[in-house]
Amino acid sequence: MFKPVCLRYLGFLLLFLPLLGQASDLQAYQGDSPFDLYDGEELRKSPKKVFAHYLSVFPLSIDNQPPDSDYYARHYLNPQGEKGKHAGYGGFIRQRPLPRSPRPGVDWLEQDLKDELRLASDIGLDGFSFNILSLSGRHWERLETMLKVAHEQSPDFKIMLMPDMVALKNVPYEKLSEALWSISQQSAVLKSSDGRVVIAPFNAHNKTAKFWQQLKTDFSARGSDIFFLPTFQGWWKFIDQYRSVSDGFSDWGAGSLKGALSLNRVKAPERVHDLTGKIWMAPVRPQDFRPRSYKYFEAGNSELFRTMWSTAIEGKADWVQLISWNDHAEGTAIRPSTKTRSAFYQLSAFYTQWFKTGVMPTIRRDAIFCFYRIHSTQVKPDLSRQLKLFDAAGEPQNEIELLAFLARPGQLEIEIGGQISRREAPAGITSFKVPLRNGTPVFRVSRAGIKELELIGREPVGGGIVYQDLLYRSDYLAAPY
């Protein structure tokens, strides 16, 4: 029933070994999970479901080139990439998937998707909610490849069809209907417990309830019914209009801690259950930073992620959508990546098990999670390069966090800039925050004056900057078995 999470994806990690200078990537996975992880297949038997939003724009590799000169390096991370269109805000993204060596063979994308499905499957996720951006071309082809890989590799790992009704808003009804039907009968497509195809459009309100009812009618006439699970932005504004056509409801949720706490007062799961008797898919996101929109949402280190998970668990949500698996343009990725490492991935394993079993996993081994920005929100960029300051959603916070999972009581330490802050912590989960200072942060767990666990921040906190970079860095270290 139980297995150490890090061992399951050892094959995935071995992809990084040939990379010169990339050996340190393995440190993100040093040690094992701090709790006993249920087998992913066992967790997927639960009626509670967890899906991770998948954006085909950001696969593990875009072009299968060496990571220091591939498309991510040349165009997405580089302010001058893509003919300089990202120069005003310092690059399209601030981090990328953990790099790998070029893979031999023409099926490298398929091999990459196998690794991603394995990573997600290992922590008990039920599948990906695939954001359908187009009905042809490379994004549609990646959906088809993912369905093939899921069928061959993980029969119980499913793909939720999520047409993006911002990108597809002006697509004719007949074209959308035909495209969705063409893939809906594949075995890897998510079905409800009674066998209906789950279709969960993002921004479903860009089309009328009549539009979606017509889709359900047309599918039914072809012999396959739809389980309609729309995702809104502000679900309460649309519940009356879409109640008759919907089999459940979901929302994109808040990007800031303040927004998430405010939405908690709406009590979405309870209201959806009471008003409609239908399921609620709760949103959970780690953070939200959008360079091209000149905007960041204040997550309060790990607090947004933990708050949204608690809301889903305590509110008795039926399903959860992690937003997201890999959206680097909005800084929401939980997939192991270069700046956030495996921290949100490991936390997702913990909370997924808690959500599905109804019992908080017992912490067996100590673990350290750290979260911090590499500069204060008050530090000004070079406004001759960055066109304008990034706007904040929520009250900006400038703190360093040590999130400790302790098997028994201990002392927590954060050292930075020549100062050491300490706090006694009980067994269990403790969030310890101190003001952000310049320097390289060091995070420790000690007992009786003896250091037992130490995690050194990979990037220092500095003063002067050219472009604002308000993505929270994170990392993870657990004691070995």
TrEMBL record:
<dbReference type="InterPro" id="IPR005197">
    <property type="entry name" value="Glyco_hydro_71"/>
</dbReference>
<protein>
    <recommendedName>
        <fullName>Glycosyl hydrolase family 71</fullName>
    </recommendedName>
</protein>
<keyword id="KW-0732">Signal</keyword>
<feature type="signal peptide">
    <location>
        <begin position="1"/>
        <end position="23"/>
    </location>
</feature>
<dbReference type="Pfam" id="PF03659">
    <property type="entry name" value="Glyco_hydro_71"/>
</dbReference>
<dbReference type="GO" id="GO:0051118">
    <property type="term" value="F:glucan endo-1,3-alpha-glucosidase activity"/>
</dbReference>
